[in-house]
């Protein structure tokens, strides 16, 4: 890591962390995560795991980490599914939706008081999930052509899995956009609405918070545009070479979140 005198982790009150490629990779916990979470507790830091993956509920994320040996209570998770449901609840309370996605998205929509409708919904909402098929794609396309507004849970094109990458929401919704000539509105990172909600949940001002992630195009840019310090970790999809192709820079680059406690102790490790 390159020392940056402008970023002292000890002075920061809150940490917002991405999950895929930062905390775990597929079903494997990444090195240093347990130490990082222990440091957050020991130093009484506020923290939130913020994920663009709309498939999981906070309870499922809690259980997923528990299976990997890390205990993080449910209230420390916030997903693009919750951000999407909150956006729709604010925009059109009690509206109806045709949703393509997993339990995380469907539960969030139900909990926000929205109803499912495959005849004449107000919105077509797309997240990741095994229910995605040519049939659901065709249904969604025709509903949008008949006037339903198109919403995407997040704008990630792909996401890391254990043996490579998987197409994510932006790639899955693209056929609907192309077939209808309609542009989707995306609710997850880097949408500032999601970041502002995260800061509110932490009870933090942006200057007191750090955004930690493995992607320049969602994590780093969302932290930067929200006024937070940013940490790029190289444990996910971004390399140093790829980072240099962007017009903006993170505050600090680390190998992984396990370097954060070391940096707080002043043990700076050059990459």
Proportion in β-strands: 15-25%
Structural Rg: 19 Å
> Which structural class matches the secondary elements?
alpha/beta
What's the architecture of the largest domain, going by CATH? 3-Layer(aba) Sandwich
Largest sheet: spatial strand order: 5-4-1-13-14-15
Helix content: 25-40%
Number-wise, the strands total 15
The overall average pLDDT, rounded, is 93
CATH topology annotation of the largest domain: Rossmann fold
Number of domains: 2
**In angstroms, what separates the terminal alpha carbons?**
5 Å
Low-confidence runs of at least 5 consecutive residues: 1-5
Order of helices and strands: EEEHEHEHEHEEHEEEHEHEHEHEH
Tally the helices.
10
What is the highest CATH level, the class of the largest domain? Alpha Beta
Shape, principal axes of CA atoms: globular
Find the CATH superfamily of the largest domain: HAD superfamily/HAD-like
Main pleated-sheet profile: 6 strands, parallel
Question: How would you describe the overall organization of this protein?
Answer:
By secondary structure, the chain is an alpha/beta fold. The chain folds into two domains: 9-52 and 189-264, Rossmann fold (3-Layer(aba) Sandwich), CATH 3.40.50.1000; 81-186, HAD superfamily/HAD-like (Rossmann fold), CATH 3.40.50. The protein has ten helices and 15 strands. It has helices spanning 33-42, 58-67, 80-91, 103-111, 134-145, 169-180, 192-202, 216-225, 240-243, 259-264, and strands at residues 14-17, 24-25, 28-29, 46-51, 77-79, 96-100, 115-116, 123-126, 149-152, 158-161, 164-167, 185-186, 209-213, 229-233, 252-254. The strands form four sheets. The protein has a six-stranded parallel beta sheet. A hairpin with a 2-residue loop joins strand 10 and strand 11. Helix 3 packs parallel to helix 4 and helix 5 packs across helix 6 (169-180). It is globular. It starts with 13 loop residues before the first strand and ends in a 7-residue tail after the last helix. The relative contact order is 0.18.
């Amino acid at each position: 890591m390159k020392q940056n005198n402008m970023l002292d982790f000890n002075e920061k009150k809150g940490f917002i962390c991405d999950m895929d490629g930062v905390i775990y990779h597929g079903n494997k916990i990444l090195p240093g995560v347990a130490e990082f979470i222990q440091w957050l507790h020991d130093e009484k830091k506020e923290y939130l795991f913020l994920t663009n993956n709309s498939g999981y509920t906070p309870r499922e994320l809690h259980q997923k980490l528990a299976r990997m040996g890390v205990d993080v209570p449910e209230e420390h998770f916030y997903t693009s599914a919750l951000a999407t449901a909150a956006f729709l609840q604010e925009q059109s309370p009690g509206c109806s939706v045709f949703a393509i996605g997993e339990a995380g998205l469907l539960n969030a929509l139900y909990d926000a008081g929205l109803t499912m409708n495959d005849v004449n919904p107000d919105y077509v909402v797309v997240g990741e999930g095994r229910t995605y098929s040519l049939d659901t794609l065709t249904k969604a396309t025709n509903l949008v052509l008949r006037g339903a507004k198109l919403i995407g849970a997040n704008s990630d094109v792909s996401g890391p899995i254990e043996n490579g990458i998987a197409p994510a929401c932006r790639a899955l919704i693209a056929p609907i956009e192309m077939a209808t000539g309609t542009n989707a509105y995306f609710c997850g990172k880097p949408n500032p609405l999601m970041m502002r909600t995260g800061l509110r949940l932490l009870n933090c001002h942006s200057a007191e918070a750090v955004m930690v992630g493995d992607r320049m195009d969602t994590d780093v840019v969302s932290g930067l545009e929200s006024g937070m310090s940013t940490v790029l970790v190289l444990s996910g999809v971004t390399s140093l070479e790829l980072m240099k192709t962007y017009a903006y820079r993170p505050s600090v680059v680390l190998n992984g979140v396990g370097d954060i406690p070391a940096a707080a102790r002043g043990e700076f490790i050059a990459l």
